[in-house]
Amino acid sequence: MKSFKNKVAAITGAGSGIGRSLALALARQGCQLALSDVAAEGLAETAAQARTLGVKVSEHLVNVADREAVHAWAEQVVAEHGGVNAIFNNAGVAQGGTVEGNDFADYEWVMNINFWGVVNGTKAFLPHIKASGSGHIVNISSIFGLFAQPGMSAYNASKFAVRGFTESLRQELDMADYGISASCVHPGGIKTNIAKTARMNTSLANITGQEADKARQQFNDQLLRTTPEKAARTIIKGVLANKRRILIGPDAYVLDAMQRLLPSFYQRLVVASMRLAARYAPKDLSKKIITATD
Fold it and tell me: How is residue 12 annotated by DSSP?
């Protein structure tokens, strides 16, 4: 795509964070919007803000894990807007816990939204974008789709899966030469609600030396540095440049470089740093950890 002006873009997870910022940034470029989320209030607020920018906006409550609902939404978008040129599969959730401490339900919850939500959105919108003759599929992975860390196996698995799915899709689209393309986005720490609402279980204490709430707060304070507005600008710029991989934030570049230079050894560095952090955890919590693991 050379421009978003007079095009139609669908966005999942549009009720807040990167999704909202993408909607507003695209609206400023004259792009019609088809917005979805599971949170009615946030979705309505994003739609209201976008309409003030003078573009046509539709809004739909959609759970991306519901395949039939996503396909129905795609049909509604085409009916309401006359077509669609882009899908931003942005909706996502986070969960923290060790492999031993996680339930199967934790993996299913994360994968159903983060991975299957992307597959559902791609499959539902691809035929319509193909029919438009010019468009783009944008799938949001994470820097943790390139770089793994302990305590986030469900999240890592889902984001690595999005990466593999999107890279395969991109190659297929390049071979078919439909006039459409795909990009995989790898944000680093973004100041959004995904970290604040992440599900974290008590098993994290065994590897971080912190209770779940404290681990989440430290993550928010130290790692979430890039604004969603900047993230949206970077994504749009990357799409217009037809980039295969879009990195967001200095931390994303650093971790991507570390993984490239030290594809196996980086894991030892992560373990060493987390052991060091756990060593300096409050003594009373350290006692709790020892008791819990004896």
Answer: S
Catalytic residue among 107, 155, 253, 266: 155
Contact 239, 29 (CB under 8 A): no
Residue ranges per structural domain of the chain: 8-293
Question: How many Å separate Cα 123 from the centre of its chain?
Answer: 17
201, 215 Cβ separation under 8 angstroms: no
Is residue 291 pLDDT above 50, yes or no? Answer: no
Instruction: Report whether pLDDT(216) > 70.
Output: no
Question: Does the annotation mark 155 as catalytic?
Answer: yes
Q: Residues 232-246: pLDDT tens digits?
A: 999 999 999 999 999
With bands split at pLDDT 50, 70 and 90, how would you rate the model's confidence at 293?
Answer: very low
The alpha carbon of residue 153 and the mean position of all alpha carbons in its chain are separated, in whole angstroms, by 16
Strand (E) positions, 151-232?
Answer: 180-187, 199-200
CA distance 90 to 94: 13
Token output for 233? 């600008």
pTM: 0.87
| 88 backbone dihedrals φ, ψ, rounded to 5° | -105, 100
Q: For residues 50 and 25, is the Cβ–Cβ distance under 8 A?
A: no
Residue range 18-50, pLDDT digits in tens:
999 999 999 999 999 999 999 999 999 999 999
Please give the DSSP secondary-structure letter assigned to residue 152. B
H or E, element range at 232: helix 228-240
User: How is domain 8-293 classified at the CATH fold level?
Assistant: Rossmann fold (3.40.50)
Residue 101 has a CB neighbour count (10 Å cut-off) of 16
Please give the helix or strand (H or E) that residue 166 lies within, else none. Answer: helix 153-176
User: Given phi > 0 = left and psi -120 to 50 = alpha, else beta, which region is 42?
Assistant: alpha
Please name the residue that has the structure tokens 């889902």: 158
Query: pLDDT tens across 123-152, in order?
Result: 999 999 999 999 999 999 999 999 998 889
